[in-house]
């Protein structure tokens, strides 16, 4: 019986010792702080790690988290300056820097931060219209952070950041804003389209202008070159005609023609006169028989052609064999000189062929006095 009592007493003593040890040794986690009270009054703040307290006298009342915390508050209704209600969601980043103040200066610092945030939002947004509220998030954030820092400093809390998650206007206002935004986009699209068409028209006009200028310049140069080519061709033709006239006159002087040669040429031209389908009637001169008999010996003298040619043959200087083309535009005077030279050569050839004034020309034709000298006698009937 005595042994059982001793064992019970030993068990009670061991249990008391364990309880005392548990009350004496307190382990505080990292980034935590323990608030110790002695008989209901603040005694000390336990840091992280192993700590010894007086059992049954000291008590760890609160364990404060010293890490930065994030709290998202539910949407709060705020009225803007233009009497529109918007729903604003906020997020607060804060950190406890004084555990004692956070424990004894405020009962619930999270609820206090939420209420200060709501009232500050109403003050800030109440001075803005809806357009400013939607576009001034940074201004609202800065205002909230300044007010919260000032209000929570005595609570041992430091507000790091304040963020606006969303600003939701009423559905009717949202629909109106969407229509306005759609109209604004349509307006900008129309403006951009008009500017594009204007720019396209300007570029097209500029292209047409440059094309017209280039075409006009091309036509001008083409006309200039064509005029130069026509001018040089005319010069070449004039020089060629002059050369041909000089050659013909030179050949006439070299051949010394007489009446027999001219009669022979006259007979050669007769078939050509009769050529053609339209020549239905061919009038044969009465002198054809005489021409055939003497080939000009019995024909009356032709004006300007002597019966016999005496004297030496005089050569006519025909000038250069190759025609000279004016190379410059202002050489019309040279063309005139060439034409004058051709006319001088022709005059010289005529003066050489007729050294003296010819006698009065005799009427060539029939010797019948009843026939008019200017009238061609009719052809004999076949």
Question: Which features does this protein show?
Answer:
382 residues; Tetrahydropterin Synthase, Chain A; 9 helices; 9 strands; 16% strand
The overall strand count is 9
Could you give me the name of the CATH homologous superfamily of one domain? Answer: Band 7 domain
| CATH class placement of one domain | Alpha Beta
End-to-end C-alpha gap: 199 Å
| CATH-defined fold name of one domain | Tetrahydropterin Synthase, Chain A
Structural class, from helix and strand content? alpha+beta
Helix fraction, binned, reads 40-55%
Low-confidence stretches: 295-304, 321-330, 356-382
Radius of gyration: 67 Å
Number of helices: 9
Secondary-structure element order, N to C: HEEEEEEEEHHHHEHHHH
Subcellular location: Membrane
Protein name: Regulator of protease activity HflC, stomatin/prohibitin superfamily
Membrane topology: Single-pass membrane protein
GO cellular component, one term: side of membrane
Structure explained in plain terms:
- Keywords: Hydrolase, Membrane, Protease, Transmembrane, Transmembrane helix.
- InterPro entries: Band7/mec-2_domain, Band_7, Band_7/SPFH_dom_sf, Band_7/stomatin-like_CS, Stomatin_HflK_fam.
- Its main location: membrane.
- It comes from Nocardioides lianchengensis.
- It is a single-pass membrane protein.
- The chain contains nine helices and nine strands.
- By secondary structure, the chain is an alpha+beta fold.
- Among the domains are: 2-65, no CATH class; 69-169, Tetrahydropterin Synthase, Chain A, CATH 3.30.479; 262-274 and 281-308, no CATH class.
- The strands form three sheets. Strands 6, 7, 8 and 9 form a four-stranded antiparallel sheet that branches. Strands 3-2-5 form a three-stranded antiparallel sheet. Strands 1-4 form a two-stranded antiparallel ribbon.
- α3 packs across α5 (137-152) and α6 (171-255) packs parallel to α9 (332-353).
- The longest helix is centred in the middle third of the chain and has 85 residues, at 171-255.
- Residues 295-304, 321-330 and 356-382 have low confidence and may be disordered.
């Amino acid at each position: 019986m005595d042994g059982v009592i001793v064992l019970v007493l030993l068990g009670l003593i061991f249990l008391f010792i364990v309880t005392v040890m548990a009350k004496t040794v307190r382990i505080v986690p990292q980034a935590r702080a323990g608030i110790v009270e002695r008989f209901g009054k603040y005694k000390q703040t336990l840091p992280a790690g192993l700590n010894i307290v007086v059992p049954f006298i000291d008590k760890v009342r609160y364990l404060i988290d010293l890490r930065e915390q994030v709290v998202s508050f539910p949407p709060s209704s705020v009225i803007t300056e233009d009497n529109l209600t918007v729903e604003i969601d906020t997020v607060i980043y804060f950190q406890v820097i004084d555990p004692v103040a956070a424990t004894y200066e405020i009962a619930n610092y999270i609820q206090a931060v939420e209420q200060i945030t709501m009232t500050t939002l109403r003050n800030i947004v109440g001075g803005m219209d809806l357009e400013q509220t939607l576009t001034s998030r940074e201004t609202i954030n800065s205002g909230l952070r300044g007010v919260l820092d000032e209000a929570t400093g005595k609570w041992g809390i430091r507000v790091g950041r304040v963020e606006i998650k969303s600003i939701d206007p009423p559905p009717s206002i949202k629909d109106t804003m969407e229509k306005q935004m759609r109209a604004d986009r349509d307006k900008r699209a129309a403006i951009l389209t008009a500017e594009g068409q204007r720019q396209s028209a300007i570029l097209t006009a500029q292209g047409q202008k440059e094309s017209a200028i280039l075409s006009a310049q091309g036509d001008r140069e083409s006309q200039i070159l064509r005029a130069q080519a026509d001018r040089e061709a005319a010069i070449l033709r004039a020089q060629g005609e002059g050369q041909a006239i000089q050659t013909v006159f030179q050949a006439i002087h070299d051949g010394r023609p007489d009446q027999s040669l001219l009669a022979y040429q006259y007979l050669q031209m007769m078939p050509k006169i009769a050529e053609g389908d339209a020549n239905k009637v061919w009038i044969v001169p009465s002198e054809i028989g005489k021409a055939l008999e003497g080939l000009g010996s019995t024909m009356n003298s032709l004006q300007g052609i002597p019966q016999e040619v005496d004297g030496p043959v005089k050569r006519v200087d025909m000038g250069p064999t190759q025609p000279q083309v004016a190379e410059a535009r202002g050489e019309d005077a040279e063309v005139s000189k060439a034409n004058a030279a051709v006319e001088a050569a022709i005059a010289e050839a005529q003066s050489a062929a007729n050294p003296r004034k010819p006698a009065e020309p005799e009427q060539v034709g029939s010797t019948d006095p009843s026939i008019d000298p200017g009238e061609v006698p009719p052809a004999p009937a076949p």
